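Budget justification aside, the reviewers requested a transparent look at the raw inputs and outputs of the sequence design task funded under Objective 1. We therefore reproduce one unedited record. The lines immediately below are the structure tokens for a 302-residue chain.
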């Protein structure tokens, strides 16, 4: 089958295979943007993959003070895990160690859902009996005394059982420089889509993986079919004009959000063209055996 082409970029007739996850969202505010970003960045550190981190997390967007509950700069954080129990544990541990501890911070629920995850209801015990319950309209908060004043934290936040993890694009170019340029433009476009995160460093991962390994202790190992240096030694998926492959992984609160992010990324890559960017775009899947969400590239093209 001849590959599809858009603006000279070859597009695989393939699909990204994604799987169900549990997801949640919180809004972290602080006296200024620097400290709101600092708390959010610390909370979402070491959260690239559930394979080794327990959760996948990242910054969805920043919000100005005029649109936050306490009128201060805010950062929305999304977090995903494979089960509600794991997500609960990761949420409380990370908020407790990284947001409660951050100067001037406060934490609000930021996902509407009838299913709830306790957050302030757990962190309140740090107050050692001095914590105060506060009801405002239909919202419940805890005021926990800390050394710079009070840590205000909403009692619970929303939980969605319809989150989707593992959306992806495989970006293939002639060199590291051109491939990286295409990947960075795609990340910038995808970051404008709400309700998604790109959990790897800067949104980009160079060490795409396959399931399993020759070593029994390894759950995943290098995706040798997409390693340019192994061309000739393994059954490769790379043509001779490809010298670098980078991957973008997408987690979203909904299936539609993941599709919209992939659509935005593809459009940015296609617009750049092959001379200065990617010569080919593909997607990772396991033949439909991993998950029920299939994002076909041909349906997402500009």
């Amino acid at each position: 089958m001849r590959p599809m082409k858009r603006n000279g970029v070859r597009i695989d007739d393939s699909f990204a295979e994604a799987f169900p996850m549990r997801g949640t969202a919180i809004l972290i505010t602080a006296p200024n943007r620097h400290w709101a970003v600092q708390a959010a960045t610390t909370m979402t550190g070491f959260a690239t993959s559930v394979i080794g981190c327990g959760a996948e997390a990242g910054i969805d967007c920043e919000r100005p003070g005029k649109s936050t509950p306490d009128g201060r700069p805010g950062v929305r954080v999304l977090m995903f895990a494979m089960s509600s129990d794991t997500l609960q544990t990761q949420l409380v541990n990370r908020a407790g160690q990284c947001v409660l501890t951050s100067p001037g911070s406060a934490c609000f629920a930021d996902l509407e859902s009838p299913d709830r995850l306790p957050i302030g209801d757990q962190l309140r015990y740090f107050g050692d009996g001095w914590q105060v319950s506060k009801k405002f309209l239909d919202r419940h908060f805890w005021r926990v005394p800390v050394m710079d004043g009070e840590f205000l934290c909403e009692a619970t936040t929303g939980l969605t059982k319809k989150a989707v993890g593992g959306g992806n694009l495989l970006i293939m170019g002639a060199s590291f420089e051109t491939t990286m340029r295409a990947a960075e433009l795609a990340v910038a476009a995808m970051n404008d889509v709400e309700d998604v995160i790109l959990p790897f460093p800067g949104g980009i991962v160079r060490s795409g993986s396959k399931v399993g390994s020759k070593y029994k202790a390894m759950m995943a190992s290098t995706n040798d079919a997409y390693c340019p240096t192994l061309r000739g030694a393994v059954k490769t998926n790379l043509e001779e004009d490809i010298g670098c492959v980078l991957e973008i992984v997408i987690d979203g609160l909904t299936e539609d959000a993941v599709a919209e992010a992939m659509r935005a990324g593809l459009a940015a890559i296609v617009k750049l063209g092959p001379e200065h960017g990617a010569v080919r775009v593909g997607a990772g899947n396991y033949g439909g055996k991993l998950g029920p969400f299939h994002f076909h590239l041909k349906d997402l093209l500009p």
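DSSP finds six helices and 17 strands in the chain. The CA atoms of residues 124 and 144 lie 6 Å apart. Computational costs for records of this kind are itemized in the attached budget.
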